[in-house]
Design brief:
Helices cover 52% and strands 10% of the residues. By secondary structure, the protein is α/β, with parallel strands linked by helices. It is globular and about 40 Å long.
């Protein structure tokens, strides 16, 4: 996580005065939590995209580390139950964030929620003319899992497609998003934690 924080500190120093003013103002309005729909901020610096099974360990540490460094982070606080719709705050937070951190874990691709967010993240980043970045973390998976070269993610997506009777277009957008993100150099946690 130290490398991640160093990167963010370097990016923060490079921001212009306008961004510093916005952060200062956001800090005055900061609520204790960045829960979906409860923050008064209209722009987040970082959006965390993750499966809930990573929340209590890795994702919480990353979230609080970034917040402690003064970085405005969006992390969805609520899980999605079957049949629920995506919280309206999520697309807004994705649209308004500058940096996206997808945290790829063993169970990530079992969540249509995570995959939908990722597809929107990839679309936003590609339309931003380089103003938005994706910084992937491969927590307990290999990049080849995310590339769909191994069965872990490939089979999980096939299962979602069958169980939820999803359109080919929807599922193809997830596959394309995974492949595009995997083309970005990310952090492989096993290289740092053994």
């Amino acid at each position: 996580m130290g490398n991640c924080l160093s990167l963010f500190h370097a990016r923060e120093r490079a921001d212009n005065a306008k961004h510093k003013t916005e952060r200062s103002e956001a800090g005055r309005n900061k609520t204790e939590s960045s829960e979906a729909g409860t923050s008064s901020r209209s722009q987040y610096q970082v959006f965390l995209n993750f499966k809930g099974d990573t929340r209590e360990k890795f994702t919480d540490h990353l979230y609080y580390g970034l917040q402690g460094a003064g970085i405005c982070v969006f992390r969805d606080e609520e899980g999605l139950d079957v049949g629920e719709r995506i919280n309206e705050a999520l697309p807004i937070a994705i649209n308004n964030s500058r940096i996206y951190i997808p945290i790829f874990s063993q169970n990530y691709a079992t969540s249509s929620w995570c995959l939908c967010e990722l597809a929107q993240i990839v679309e936003n980043a590609s339309l931003s003319n380089g103003h938005k970045e994706i910084l992937p973390i491969f927590l307990d998976v290999e990049p080849d899992d995310v590339k769909l070269k191994n069965p872990l993610y490939r089979d999980a997506i096939l299962n979602l497609e069958r169980e939820k009777k999803l359109s080919t277009e929807q599922v193809d957008s997830w596959r394309e998003a995974l492949k595009k993100v995997d083309a970005i150099k990310g952090w492989e946690a096993k290289k740092y934690y053994g």
